[in-house]
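Folding Task

Wanted — backbone structure
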Amino acid sequence: MTRLRFKVLGFLEVADETGRPIRLQHPGTRALVATLLERRHTAVSSRLLCEVLWPSDPPGDPRGALNSRLARLRRALPPDTLIRRPGGYGLNVHEEMLDSVLFERLLGEAVREGRRDAAQALACLDRALALWRGSAYEEFSDIEQVRLEAVRLDELRVTAGERRVELLLRLGRWEQAVAGARDITALHPFREVPHAHLMKALYHGGRHQDALAVYDRYRRELAVSLGLEPSEHLRRLSEAIVRQTIPAVRQEGDEDPRTQRRGAATATRRALVLRQEETRQLTELIDARPVAALIGPMGVGKSHLAREVLTALYGPGILPGAVLDLAGMPARVAAGLVRQRLAHGDPHETVLIDNCDEAVDAITPILRQAALDGAGPRVIATARCRILIDGCPALTLLPLAVPEDLDEETVRNSPATAFLIEHANAAGGRVAVTDRDAAHLGRLCRRLDGLPLALKLIAPRLATLTPRQVVIRMEDPFPLLRVPGDGRGRHTSMSEELQASYRLLNEQQRLVLSRLAAHREPATLNRAEALCVPHNLSVSEVAAALDDLVACSMVRLVDDDFEPRFATYNLVRDYLVHTAARRTVRHHTRAVAKFGSTREPIVRR
């Protein structure tokens, strides 16, 4: 069968495999082909084709007139090109013979090559843009069924042009970058990205005054036409041009600045001894993936680890501009900030999007698109709940290991104990693992689940209280687990951290959590279902709630040789008993005690 070549990036053209054109003279016939190409993956109904041919004044017999047009089209094309499908008609099109498909494939290849080889990526973009001969579906702007696809393709063309200018900047081809950026700004006077590229190209080419003139013209045009001001990013760029503080663009063949700074920064900073493996894993994720998710329970040290890794990679001055903290932001505001930050970020930098919990549903699609494009800055996203992005595995940060036994040697070798003693002595204490205090220090670390924030908050108390005195006063730990004084701000109160996590749960999850907390001992899924089914929850709802609670780090899985068991963290149970669900948990505790036996109940399914 003859494979036809279709071109829609301009006026419609059809040719056979040898390049010989197939002439389609009648406008109606050409409109039919354009509609069938735009909807090539589905059957196009006769009704829709009639609307395309006669949008306002249909003939007396539209079905007969359509059949006549289709017969004329069949004669113009090779056999088996126009086919009948269930529910309508279609064109037998090979995807690789359609120029719009080839354009998108080359654009995707350029994005993938962009991180490895700018010159190769530029060659792909040049091939992609060379396919264009005008606007997409240029002669069919009045056909509503085709217009949306044309707008999408035209937008991709502009995006490809912007990426091309960005690659020219990376390669140090200032004049070519200036020409490319001017072409885009002439056609799209309100797009900010090409104006930023033009300012950078002029600046690096030694034309500082011209770069500032571009900003002034853009600012005036926005104010007069739209009543708007340039973004903060563009204002900062203009200020950096005035101060001449824009860093030199890394050109192809230069060593990655992260590699240059990594050795010097590592030599001058103390290693993260207690998190060496997690530090290595997160560093490898940043190097290998465009988006790295760092998840774990409240107070486990996600933000601290991410900031320490960024500092080790880029130097201590990177943090003020690299961190976007979403704590307390409405989801819509957070999504807008993330989208803007990634759109204007340097491809060679890494952005930390911290505390994503309350906006995770809103920003996950943005992060997925960033991972798919792979052209913007690399991202570390921290959250207590799962962030699911294809091809970008998450790193789960667990609490510090607590001593399994309470003998002196085991307690001394525990990472949680080492962390607690270091912070206690830094606060003025004189704590050490001795025969007298070893067991109490071990119990304290266990009681606080090995969570670094909790250990850090309790550590100053050991400057005036002995480990034994602290342990026996942990029935209600929260008065001790806060920064002395007002304690305002994040990470100053364990109760507030738990409240933030609890606030994100729905009613079913809260009920299951309270039942599990009342049970005290780790429970199998069967046991947890038996505890919750009397409260009008089905076994599937209990299983789903448990999985969600594990995902948002309110419940932990306990290793078992036979089947996994679920347990609440000690501090989560304390929070439920003393604050959020005091009556509920105590009622459930009495019910569990009355329930009695530790044998596994059988849930009737």
Observations:
- The longest helix spans residues 144-170.
- Residues 252-272, 595-605 have pLDDT under 50 and may be disordered.
- Residues 408-492 form one domain.
